[in-house]
Amino acid sequence: MTDKRQCNLWLSTIFSIYKTLNIMRIITLSILVLTISSQVFAQDAYQLFRADVQYIYRHQLPANEVTSPLLGIRVGESPCQTTYESVLPDFLNDALDCGVRVPAFPGSEICREGAMTRLNLQSDEDPLWLELQTDAPVGTQWLAAITSDSVFAQVTAVESAEFLGLTDSVKTIEFYSRDEQGNLTPIYDSAPLRISKNYGLIKGVFLHWLGTDLGGIELVGMSEPEVGIQNPDRASIFNLSVGDEFHWSTINTEIFPEGGFEHTYTEEQAILTEQYWTTGNEERIYVFTKDVKTYFVGPESATDTLYEAGVQDIVRINWDQHAWLDAQPGTLIDEESQVVVLNNPSLCDLPAKQLGNELFLFDEECIGLVIDLGPGDFFYEGLAGPFFANVFILGFQYRVLEYARLQNGTGCGTPFDFIVSTDDPVGDIPLQAWPNPASEVLNLSCPAESGLFEYQIMNGHGQILRETTDIQFPVSIDLADLPAGVYWVTITNSDGQLRSRVPFVKQ
Q1: Which of 110, 180, 242, 400 has the smallest C-beta neighbourhood within 10 Å, fewest atoms?
Q2: Is residue 112 exposed (0-12), middle (13-18) or buried (19+ Cβ within 10 Å)?
Q3: Is the CB of residue 58 less than 8 Å from the CB of residue 351?
Q4: Separation of alpha carbons 322 and 319, rounded Å
Q5: φ, ψ (nearest 5 deg) of residue 480
Q6: 144 within 8 A of 188, measured Cβ to Cβ
Q7: What is residue 107's DSSP assignment?
Q8: Which residues pair with 103 in a beta bridge?
Q9: pLDDT over threshold 80, residue 90
Q10: Do the bridges between strand 109-113 and strand 80-82 make them parallel or antiparallel, or are there none, so unpaired?
């Protein structure tokens, strides 16, 4: 009996161990299967647009004066948000000279519900909802929009891709129509949507024209991370430092009724000397010190050339009135007024924002141009503005930023080379300066003159860089420490009277 009980005990123990091992095996296999399944089917969260990140895209549509080459979008945290209107050519009706109001490319409204993004591609009165399952795995197919043909969407690929110098996992979503036999036909020749896992939409189509293959849009900038083209706002455009230097040229033409005319050419060299806010931060005040050269051409001109030195110029920026500079590129600001245009990189390779041409409503369907009496104010990021290009009756005027040298190291263009002086620049001695251009030494001589003189070397802004008294001709001036540029050497006698002024070039 004892042996039998011991045997049964051993058998029971062995069976318990077997059951335990079997359960562990099942659990292990289950965990393994779940792990493999999660690796194969699970997807990280993808978003069409990240909250509060600004996206800027370049489109491939035909451009005219009322359209921006770039479009932007920024959505917040709210579940549903209305997007802004923009103006694009009416190419659907083959009327490229006519602009039409359309919602920004994602549609008139965007709603995000977990892994689902719904876009209203039409209006509130006549909505057309497009559903995008951004987290769906490869091969997943769903009914995306109910139209006359119905639109089906499918995730066709997930792969690594590069854009804006970034590398990320990118998901491709295709759109299809289905025939009576259930066969799917692609609506677009190329993939309509490519979505980055961490950054959002990097390539797409104009979704409010669903099914119309007009050319795509491509991401060229975003605010987080700061890569690609950026959309400058008021804070960045007017972010100047004391010591920043600007050179503007202005041409003004006035035509008189009798047939005469006068061209006025102005060159300004301006340095920012002070900046401050008014009480309540309503206005930003910039104080410039300017040297100005103005010369006149035409039968109505009464003066040849005027020089002004040390002129104070105060620029007032009304902060509230420039709120439109914070808008997205391509935004229609007023219902029948203007469009914010973000140009391609311009002066100094920095993006410029332009207040576009005034618009005139031809009829309910078409936006056209008025006679252009004020084609725009240009603002350059970090270089301030505005830079006007104004047209007026019986004449025209435009102002161009020719040169900038900022304290942050930014520089572009070529500075003006002129001497600002109220003195008569005529000298009475035949000063000879050679070689010109010079590299190391400039020689001065005046055989007919004797006695003691003083010379000064000035740059194009009239700043005295070197001054020496009690010299006699001939004399040699060491130029080794001067940077390349255009300079003037001025000779005065012992009484301080101007005797001669000669320009020279340092190589």
Answers
A1: 180
A2: buried
A3: no
A4: 5
A5: -60, -35
A6: no
A7: -
A8: 85
A9: no
A10: antiparallel
Residue in the block written with tokens 């991370």: 225
CA distance 465 to 105: 57
Span 376-401, pLDDT tens digits: 678 888 888 877 655 555 566 777 88
Regarding beta strands 184-186 and 485-493, do their DSSP bridges make them parallel or antiparallel, or are they unpaired? unpaired
Mean pLDDT on 87-105: 78
The token pair at 222 is 């975003």
- Give the single-character DSSP code of 302: -
What count of Cα atoms within 13 Å lies in the side-chain half-sphere of residue 179?
A: 5
Contact, 362 vs 90, CB < 8 A? no
Mean pLDDT of 273-280: 93
What is the pLDDT, as a whole number, of residue 461?
Answer: 56
Q: Are 201 and 194 in contact, with CB atoms under 8 Å apart?
A: yes
Structure-token match 């490519």, residue found: 194
**Whether pLDDT at 288 is above 90:** yes
Could you identify the residue written with the tokens 């923009």?
A: 86
**Cβ contact 477:442 at 8 Å:** yes
Of the listed ranges 135-149, 220-234, 291-305, the one predicted with least confidence: 291-305
CA-based nearest residue to 84, from 68, 95, 73: 73
- Residue 21 to residues 12, 14, 30, Cα–Cα distance (Å): 14, 10, 14
Please give the pLDDT value at position 30: 39
Mean pLDDT, the chain, as a whole number?
Answer: 79
Sign of CA dihedral 24, 29, 30, 36: positive
Q: What is the mean pLDDT of residues 466-493?
A: 82
- The gap between the terminal CA atoms of the chain, to the nearest Å, is 119
Q: What HEC string does 222-290 produce?
A: ECCCCEECCCCCHHHHCCCCCCCEEEEEEEEEEECCCCCEEEEEEEEEEEEEEEEECHHHCEEEEEEEE
